Amino acid sequence: MTLPSTRQLKKDFPFLKSGIAFLDNASTTQKPQCVIDATTDYYRASANVHRGIYQLSERATEQYEAVRDHVQRLIGAEAREEIIFTSGATASLNTVAYMLAQQLTAGDEIILTAMEHHSNLVPWQLIAKEKGLKLVFLQPCDDALSIDELEKRITARTKVISMTHVSNASGYIVPVADFARVAHARGIRVVVDAAQSVPHMPVNVQELGADFLAFSAHKMCGPTGVGVLYGKRELLEQFEPIHGGGSMIEEVTLEASTWAPLPAKFEAGTPNIAGVLGFGAALTYLEQIGFATIQKTVDEVYDYACTQMADCYGVELYGPKDRALRQSILSFTVDGVHPHDVATILDQEGVAVRAGHHCAQPLMQCWGVPATTRASLYFYNTKNDVDRLIAGIAKAQSIFAT
């Protein structure tokens, strides 16, 4: 099959017809028309799932559960029961943190990294304060993480390692599988924030060694308000649910309740049905392109962007120096120009980027800066988008040099 060009793919996205170079894909991606249609089609004829015995409800349930099967295949989970739908990666990471907390006691240790998104840091801080746990941090050296440091940090009280797969601020690709092998050899559970990896590359939870893994639909052309929590079935069976309500129960009396089998046990209440169906359309769309093709396409534009950025006077690019350790994200500062001012000038030039700490303030502190400007790529971006980015940076420099 001949795949369409990036220029042709842009036509699938209503917003991209505006001509804006959208370079904030690490925050969220644009939605193709097929995803918008799948979402609105549900709202034209709505019914709840897992409840009604009439045709409309049964059809919605079948479509909803088909997306669960699709996600299972996508990440290589052993069973569909291991796929829990949430409201996003943040909700998924909070859920697994509070589940694991059920088996943690005062003095137990959680290993994190200094480059985590706040979604994989703040929940652990809350739990550590509540239960008297100790948080231990791996510090990046040259913006990369060391297996040797991990082995030095592990103690008899280490119970969990929770880490990003790809840094949302630097694009650093963490060798999670290597870290997981070290952890599992010592009986430590591994949680992976895959919000920035699943949209860009083939990810298999078995090969990665993840006990739990979280990601969001909206970073891969799906709707907002939909996330996935993968957990090994034998582990999910051990924990009490985090939320209570309808759908997740087997039997309820005034005195007590029992829980429905997985995955319903962790999906209380009416889910984001329209969002999940839209996510299913996004997965089909992305698989038609192919995740290997997505990775190759982004890498080509990213290589070009890194080369162009390196030639920009007064621009510092953050992250590992070795290009092979990074993907899709360019986090940078411009001498004499605040990151917010850079982003404002770029916006005036029709280029959308993000400026700030990117919900990774500890990493900014490691870099010694309060903020950066971040351009992040997806498969619908082109070298022309990069050229407009570089031209906009030059304009910001010229304005603030006067």
What are the defining features of this structure?
402 residues, alpha/beta, 7-stranded mixed β-sheet, 4-stranded antiparallel β-sheet, 16% strand, globular
Describe the structure.
This protein is globular. With 402 residues, it is an alpha/beta fold. Helix 2 runs antiparallel to helix 10 (273-289), helix 11 packs parallel to helix 14 (383-401) and helix 12 packs across helix 14 (383-401). It has a seven-stranded mixed beta sheet, with helices on both faces. A hairpin with a 4-residue loop joins strand 9 (249-252) and strand 10. The model has no long low-confidence stretch (mean pLDDT 96). The N and C termini lie far apart (53 Å). It has helices spanning 6-10, 33-44, 55-75, 89-100, 122-131, 147-153, 176-184, 205-208, 233-236, 273-289, 291-310, 339-348, 361-367, 383-401; strands at residues 21-22, 83-86, 109-113, 134-138, 158-164, 189-193, 212-216, 227-231, 249-252, 257-259, 315-318, 329-334, 351-352, 354-356, 372-376. The protein is built from 14 helices and 15 strands.
Strand content: 15-25%
Low-confidence spans:
none
The biggest beta sheet reads: 7 strands, mixed
Give the end-to-end Cα distance, rounded to a whole number of Å.
Answer: 53 Å
| Rg estimate, integer Å | 22 Å
Please write the string of helix (H) and strand (E) elements: HEHHEHEHEHEHEHEEHEEHHEEHEEHEH
Query: Approximately how much helix is present in the residues?
Result: 25-40%
Largest sheet strand order: 2-8-7-6-5-3-4
Rounded average pLDDT: 96
- Tally the helices: 14
Report the count of strand segments.
15
* Backbone shape: globular
Structural class: alpha/beta
